[in-house]
Amino acid sequence: MFKILKKLYNWVLSWADRKSGPIALCFFSSIEAIFFPVPPDPLLMALCLGNRKKALFFAFLCSICSVTGGLVGYSIGYRLWELTKDFFFSYVFSAHTFERVSILYHNNSFLAIFTAGFTPIPYKVFTVSAGVFKINIFIFFLASILSRSLRFFTIATLLKIFGREIKDFIDKYFNLLTVIFIILLIGGFILLRNI
Fold it and tell me: CA-to-CA distance for 104 and 148, rounded, in angstroms?
């Protein structure tokens, strides 16, 4: 399994050498905020490592496209929920998770969206549900732009400053980091279920 993941990691890094790498980053950042299960972070890292001078530009692209995708998710929830809810409940998130998010919105919608945008908690659950629950669009946009920018610019800045050392670290501890990443991703879903 780790050999397959290592090949996938190397394939993702290969986008840094392609002209279409930034376009792929924009695409995956956008759809991840709506339904796609893989976060854009690995591709962002690959592009930053491939061209450290453009690291902050890549973070900017990733942030803007992720928030744009989030706004599309919000619009789907706001306007098309009745038409799309079967798809989302079948393939993207559970009805139970969806209801848990509504409780988080009731407590503090800004903090709920900000936390989802910055951590491994699935952001897509919050983008779509924010529209369904009619969360104030300004609060949604502000929390999204702050959290997504903070997340992606932190990654890009670290890679810009410590690029070679971090790449060597990732290569050396790839198996362990993969396990930690998967645990964090699954943990985000479990956290939503148990809140």
Answer: 19
The 10s digit of each residue's pLDDT in 44-55 is 988 888 888 999
DSSP 53: G
Distance between CA atoms of 71 and 85, rounded to whole angstroms? 17
Q: Contact, 28 vs 38, CB < 8 A?
A: yes
Query: Please, what's the largest Cα pairwise distance for the chain?
Result: 49
- The residue type of 179 is V
pLDDT in tens, 55-112: 999 999 999 999 999 999 999 999 999 999 999 999 888 888 888 888 889 888 999 9
Place of tokens 């050396």: 172
Instruction: Return d(Cα 77, Cα 101) in angstroms, integer.
Output: 13
What is the CA 92 to chain-centroid distance, rounded? 14
Q: How many CB atoms lie within 10 A of CB 185?
A: 16
Structure tokens at 48: 């930053």
CA–CA distance, 74 with 174 (Å, rounded to integer):
35
CA-based nearest residue to 156, from 40, 71, 68, 78: 40
pTM of the model: 0.80
Of 193, 30, 45, 21, the C-alpha closest to 124 is 30
